[in-house]
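TA notes. Do not distribute before section.
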Amino acid sequence: MIAANVPKATGALRERCAQLAADPSSVTQRVYALLEEFEESYSRLLPTLRHDVLQFLDFAAKLWFNSVLTGTFPSADEIETLAQTGRRRVHQGMALASVLRGFRFGGREAWNALLGCAQSNPEARDELLFVISRYQLEFFDSLSQTISQAYLDEQYQRLRWRDSLRHELASLVFQFPDDVAAFQRTAEALGLDPTAARVALVLDLKLSKATPTRLEGELDRVTLSTSRQLKCGYEDLVRVLHRERLVIWAPCIRGDTLVAADRRIFENAVALARVVPEVQAIGVGLMNQGPAGWATSVDEGFKALEFGVRGHANQKVHLYSDIAVNESVRRTNNVLRYLDSLLERLAGEPELLVTLQTYFDGQQRRKTAADALGIHPNTLNHRLERIESLLGCKLDDAGWIAKLHVALRLRQRSLSGPDDPRAGAPGR
């Protein structure tokens, strides 16, 4: 707290303080001009916030000039007004450093405003230098501390409040995905659009065994890095620790198609894995919306992570879209039976199955397949013709290529077992 003895201006200095206390606009306008020059954020303020800042600068300047006029420190009510401003700046999205810079510029311009009348008046000069200046330093330092403490306290309370809402939102997604109304209320309380589509990223992190507080700090840092790679605000992301993995729901660009969102998130996730050493792997679900959609995207992200790590351990980012067809087919018994029956028609001639598998592994390049099998190209052509005859298909038909590719993948997975790395879905 500031010293008990507050100086009281006299003579010419007192007259000048009285003028500035009545109308400090010349000081506040110069302060705001400096803020716009040295703090880019001030030049982008909305008109209502700009007006609020100018009013506060005016209020702070009057506090200073009135203090040395009356010889008293600002009242408890005036100090509370300062604290309220600090708390309000948190919700207005202004950085504390920017707020405090206003105090530094304010102190300097208040000094300059009094310096003019002191330059030609030795008594005023001595009073300003040896009496007023000491108090001025204490005054602005005390006000800065008041507003800083109020800002930090409010920021802490806001973070706790947001954390509580964030966990409530995640609980709704995982436990009550049909409660759309509660989901909408909670999302809106967080300042999120509940109708917007999102993609779930499931991050497998190598984290140090730390206290819960330190763990939260590490997760915050990873989330901040994610927001930078996704080029979105930190508070636009929703994160939660789920099944020992960090789940982050990332916003999609309105109007994005599934394919465009998938590609964009994939590229951003690759960049994230490159810059954050704790990231061991990332599973990416498909774009979806609403509580049930968010839950589905998380489930897809976990599946992508599981299959990707088993089948493509050299990659760090794994997309559900890479295994979506296989997963959909596995859940449809009739389709499974149909695909199984295709390969059963070739089972009597085992070399045909090997040939077909090798042909697809070689991206349907006949020379590549023949070389891999160690057979003459004519022998390969004869085998492929035999396959077409048995199945009644054409191996240059896109529909048949898709069906046989999926059938072979599922067969390979079935033969190698669910825990075999060779059973993974195709890589990107």
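Switch to the second chain here.
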Amino acid sequence: MTFSNLGLIGSNLKKLVESKVVDKKLEELAPSISFTDLEIIFELLSFEVEKIHYLARRREFEAHMQYEGDELDLLSFYLDNGFNIGETEYKKNLALNLSMKSKELDPYIVGTSEGKTCENRS
């Protein structure tokens, strides 16, 4: 099953479970990342260890946090702090609005699509 047509909830497993789009528990699911977003993630994270860390921490972060945003919003947030937000990650009554955080990546994404050399953020 592909979740690419589901907008923001396509990359948010908790929302998929809560909206009954899937009949699995969160622990039974793997993150759904579009190929285009995965390409951007792998371009911006230069080293294999960074890619592995992003994917591992993304899964942990999603399991602990309530958030609004898509995959590139998550990536931009990760580039700021590695998903390291201390004890805040475990507060059940907090939701982060990461929507539009990906706008910080637009100069890189647009620039590289136009053939310009852009500095890698990692």
